[in-house]
């Protein structure tokens, strides 16, 4: 999800009539912030004689996350059978987003959102993602940086439209007529690009290397 700048327990299923924040809290997609002040991003230049702070912890997190999600790396069908469903179509320099409403809280091995790239009949997992209602006071991952996704109405075919309140969401998706599934308030996002290289960094909200997929 898009932006330039999250985490801890809640849970989100497709919600209709329940009010915005209450609905998201009940289903658990959103996770509230917690803990201490967020750590700064990694300094741009560091001596080759020393490792950046959090390097060992980050390497362990990457290894655990890759081991847990390897089964989904090129198998969207399996992810869908395990409960992930589309919540956005292709977002430029990002990908298609798939949400599992049964995943709650923060666990590096259980991402609530999978971000896929699509070419022809093939799907390639690019990033894992978590969302929060505010910037976490304690980073869930070493030196994490965050993005932003505005309040929006979502529909069953992956269509979404910005909207500040759930009550004004159209009942069906403009253009496609797809069923309304849920609304969410402004969100802080945390991408984790462990399945596709990102020159903007492992926590980049967007990835210039997936730009060619924009028109796929």
Overview of the structural elements:
- The chain is of the alpha+beta class.
- It has one domain (20-35, 68-215).
- Helices cover 13% and strands 24% of the residues.
- It has helices at 20-27, 55-69, 76-81; strands at 85-91, 95-99, 113-119, 122-132, 147-149, 152-155, 160-162, 180-184, 187-192.
- The strands form two sheets. A six-stranded antiparallel beta sheet has the order 1-2-3-4-9-5. Strands 7-6-8 form a three-stranded antiparallel beta sheet.
- Strand 6 (152-155) and strand 7 (160-162) form a beta hairpin.
- The protein is globular, with a radius of gyration of 17 Å.
What distinguishing features does this structure have?
216 residues, alpha+beta, 6-stranded antiparallel β-sheet, 3-stranded antiparallel β-sheet, 9 strands, 13% helix, disordered N terminus
Secondary structure topology:
Blueprint: H1 20-27, H2 55-69, H3 76-81, E1 85-91, E2 95-99, E3 113-119, E4 122-132, E5 147-149, E6 152-155, E7 160-162, E8 180-184, E9 187-192
Question: Going across the major beta sheet, what is the strand order?
Answer: 1-2-3-4-9-5
| Helix-and-strand structural type | alpha+beta
Average pLDDT over all residues: 82
Strand % is 15-25%
Helix-strand string: HHHEEEEEEEEE
The share of residues in helices is 10-25%
Give the count of helical stretches.
3
Total number of beta strands = 9
Largest sheet: 6 strands, antiparallel
Cα-atom Rg, whole angstroms?
17 Å
Number of domains: 1
- Indicate the overall shape: globular
Distance between the termini: 18 Å
Low-confidence stretches: 2-29, 32-51
Oligomer category? single chain
